[in-house]
Amino acid sequence: MKLEKVFEYDINNKLEAKIQELLIGSFPEVYPRDRIYFKQLPHVRFLAFNQENQLIGHVGLDYRVMNLNGKPIRVLGVIDLCVSQSARSQGLGSTLLLEIDKFSVGRNIDFTLLFADNMTLYLRNGYKPVKNRCKWLKIDDETQLTNGIGFEAMNELMIKEVGKTDWSKGNLDFLGYLY
Questions:
Q1: For residues 124-132, average pLDDT
Q2: Global confidence as pTM
Q3: Domain range holding 60?
Q4: What does the pLDDT read at residue 139?
């Protein structure tokens, strides 16, 4: 297996087609058919390829400032982690999360943050569920237009402390869209 770090602006049409196929295959009921992002483009992606150069794993990363209880925090958002059907249950999801951990070391990142319907993989890899009241920019999936501001607690929210800042309960303003 080969892992590659790819910046979004370096993705060519051939690679875009591979990413789109993997995302649609992994999220068939919800993923848009005409693009390789759900709400916004990630800044960078980690891609896993097998020996035949087939894309078998993907995770996007979004770096930005958020506001936790009135204080700015630097967050690396984990977006659309997925593994092809043929490569599942072989540790690739954990490998991608470990790659994010290694990438975060020594960088100006306080937390990695993600949303998970099934938390099992993330719990095994050091993430913890948190209950914060979240505020975010709502974007319509189909029209890609701003749809207002959302404000509610999210049961699927998970974080991992990778810097020196401690997470706290309370209000989390995403200062942008949800992943």
A1: 97
A2: 0.93
A3: 2-177
A4: 93
